[in-house]
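hey so i finally got around to running the thing on that chain from the lab meeting. sorry it took forever, my laptop kept dying and i had to restart like 3 times. anyway pasting the input first so we r on the same page abt which one it is
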Amino acid sequence: MENRALRVGHKWDNSIAYIVDGEGYIFENNRNAQNFYEMISPFGLHENYNTMAGKTDSVILVFDLPQNISEPYLKVRGNILMGDIPDRARFRKMKIKLFK
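ok and heres what got predicted. didnt touch it at all, straight out
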């Protein structure tokens, strides 16, 4: 999470991103697997985050996907902030192709 704001913090949580496949199925972060990963390889997991203006935060998300998934894309969700108005909240339309 990169907060490009000049003054305002950005609040978010572990549901910030999800995966959608070519058929429209949605896969959420697997919190049990994420907690397990935090135990074996700590990365600073929190329930909620507040990325201050001009700062960057990160998290590791864990998804349980079927072997035969087709056209998986990572998408993000969140609230529209003032800085999102000029680009019409483009982040809501963004899709990051993961693999074939």
